[in-house]
Amino acid sequence: MIKSFYLHKLVYYIAGLAAVVFVTSYFFPQLYRIGLLILLLMALAMLVDGVLLYSKKNALEAERILSERFSIGDPNKIFIRLRNNYPFPIRASIIDEIPVQFQDRNWLKKTQVSGQSENELHYTLTPLSRGEYYFHDINVYAHGPLQLVRRRFIFPAQQVVKVYPSYVQMRKYQLLAVSNRLQEVGVKRIRKIGHSMEFEQIKEYVRGDDYRTINWKATARKDSLMVNNYTDERSQQIYCLVNKGRVMKMPFHGMTLLDYSINAALVLANVALVRQDKAGIVTFEKNIDMFLQADKKPTQMNLVLETLYRQKTDFLEADFEKLFSVIRNRVTNRSLLVLFTNFESLESLQREMPALKRMARYHLLLVVFFENTELKQVLDKKAATIEEIYIKTIAEKFMYEKRLMVKELHKNGILSILTSPENLTVNTVNKYLELKTRMSI
Q1: Phi then psi dihedrals of residue 7, to 5 deg
Q2: Stated pTM of the model
Q3: Beta-strand runs (E) in 157-287
Q4: Tens of pLDDT along 244-291?
Q5: Which of 98, 119, 215, 326 has its CA 20 to 30 A from that of 178?
Q6: What is the Cα–Cα distance from 431 to 420, expressed in whole angstroms?
Q7: What is the per-residue pLDDT across 372-401, written as a single tens digit (0 to 9) for each?
Q8: Which CATH number is 81's domain given?
Q9: How many angstroms separate the CA atoms of 189 and 330, rounded?
Q10: Domain membership flag for residue 423
Q11: Whole domain around residue 143: which residue ranges?
């Protein structure tokens, strides 16, 4: 009982007032009785408040309601349900012992619950790294009716939540891909060039159909215009190659480039599976850490999600030659290889260019690397001093080198995307759809 007994700050204010009265009574003796009366009334009120608060053993009940897994980089909702078994309303201060990864030492929520009723409050957490997050106890401080005494309740609520790559983005893009509405999130419409060779059905002509696809034999039989309907070629192999090396450690809005790449790889794999293509994952650093064979079986998406969730890295230098060797031996059919990596200088790209050119000889290679958003902020500022002019000049040099890298890759027949981390997913999915439309795979 003693450990759960706390005084409200109002008690200290009243005690301070009584002390001032006692000091003043040295000069005005008649105030002594007033100070004594203040202390006696406060003690009586505290006694009544304490008796009311400790009159019931299980006066409060609290539980935390949350998902078994969180999505990295997205707000995840947590609910706390509080049950008041007192016959009177209470004010409650709630401290939830959230995982240490969030480093929030001032977490506090306040609510009011009527007598013999329930109340539910919610808050959101946005994890910035994958792995296991441990929730601990829920602490509730119940304020008495007179607001002088507080009683602390501790509710054991240990829970472990796994933080996965952003399945929230994955589901959003999946729904849009199924309904062919990907342009709503920034994926642009692409004019169809020619037709794929996969025939789907013959249907009635509607305004907007390509008149070159009119099936004259079917039209003669039905006595109305009929057109051939084609669909994109299916069962093509898409591999997401994720570099887990040192260059992917750079942070952006609290997350590393590696985590942005893993999120984009998850979304791209899911969209490819929705489009009836085969999706596979390769993660590499100094060695090839994980190779998931491209497939479109019903359990493939779960395998992709679990594969990406378990990825850990020491951010060592990546070995592109070893990556090529594995790709050459294990990926026998021509495939689309989407390589998520980063290059900060033209020299670093040229070091890896021989391996990239060999991969592009056997497969369609798409290199996805990142703009340095910090440099863009430097370029947007006006330079006022010689030092600022020097810094801005260096920033322009690095930005120019990024554009040179795009040209260098194009010159060697390698497709590329230069993007900011926040636009990575949209730009990657858009490029995949463009390549499908152009029948480049």
Answers
A1: -100, 140
A2: 0.79
A3: 159-164, 198-204, 226-231, 237-243, 251-252, 255-256, 278-284
A4: 999 999 988 889 999 999 999 999 999 999 888 999 999 999 999 999
A5: 215
A6: 15
A7: 888 877 888 888 888 888 888 888 888 899
A8: 2.60.40.10
A9: 34
A10: yes
A11: 60-164
